[in-house]
Amino acid sequence: MVTSLTRDDHARITAAINTAEATTSGEVFCVLAHRVSSYRDVSLGWAAAAALILPMLLIPLGFDPAWVPGVADSWESAHMAARDLTVGRALAAYAVVQAAVFTVIFLLTCIPVIRRLVTPRMVRRARVRRAAMQQVLAHGLHNTPLRTGVLIFAALEDRQVEIVADAGIHERVDAAVWVQAVDALTIALRDGRPADGFETAIAQVGAVLAEHFPPEALEADHLSNRLVEI
User: Residue 134 and residue 159: Cα distance in Å, rounded?
Assistant: First the structure.
């Protein structure tokens, strides 16, 4: 698992972007995000569901408030006046169990490995895509004169890669052409070779851009050619 990139890695990626952009008027921009979301809402959802459902499994077993230390006495009055107190203790004990289950499940699902397992893939994909679009807007990829910017976005913790092409490219190039670049970067990141992955993906994206958008003599470089880590 990649945790950080070296200065040499950054230099290699910058060189790859410069090489790719030398053959096209399009522009390539790369972002490496260590985390796109805390997924706190997912942890809260699992904890709430567990706190609601799991304690109910104790009822068929004859749930007794005495099972919860400090909530019920070991002696209980048998007359009617004590019934309300007994019910109250039972409810209090049940609430304590629910709170304990909620806390344990919430803390467990905050562990990165477990959080990734319990977070639906479609949720992670949506969060990564949203984060990628935020980077498009934040760095002005949509403001290039010909709308020919391409974002290569990698989310480390989610282990997902997104390639976002601006309108000028999207109109001419089918989204399926980016699959090889996505796969190359995904595999390299999984193997701990981030620079290799970005170099390959950049070269493949550059080849597509060169085919549809040849270089123009007066075309300026509107986007940074360095990898951005967030």
Answer: 18
